[in-house]
Amino acid sequence: MVSPTATPAQIDLPTGAFPAIMRGLRAKCPRCGEGALFRAWIKPVDHCSHCAHDWSVQQADDFPAYIGIFVTGHLLAPVVIALIGTFGLSAMATLAIILPIAIVMTLAMLHPVKGGVIALLWWWGVGAFKQERRIACETPKDEL
What we know:
The chain is mainly α.
């Protein structure tokens, strides 16, 4: 385990927003990529077990749910149009098929999307998060 007072140089910080978001989508700590980000389904840990980063300050709120609903709606809209237009199903039959699928898709997306949103908030230093970046290695002028 890394010291709770570890500097960004001692931790494997992501190189950009995309790697940080990918760590969050995998429910790993966006900062170190090692510790778990959640202690329950969508309840974030207070502190990373590996790098001791404070995740209790995250404020993802309802944004992950909005993203899940937005994606689910856009993926299922062509299916609804095909079921009604091509196959001639009634509106009630279409609802009976689509609603359970939409609920399952939204719930399945909620966990990884919340991790991605927390990672994005951390990467950009939104709210109470402090923006951290990997320190670039500088080449001494004598070696140039």
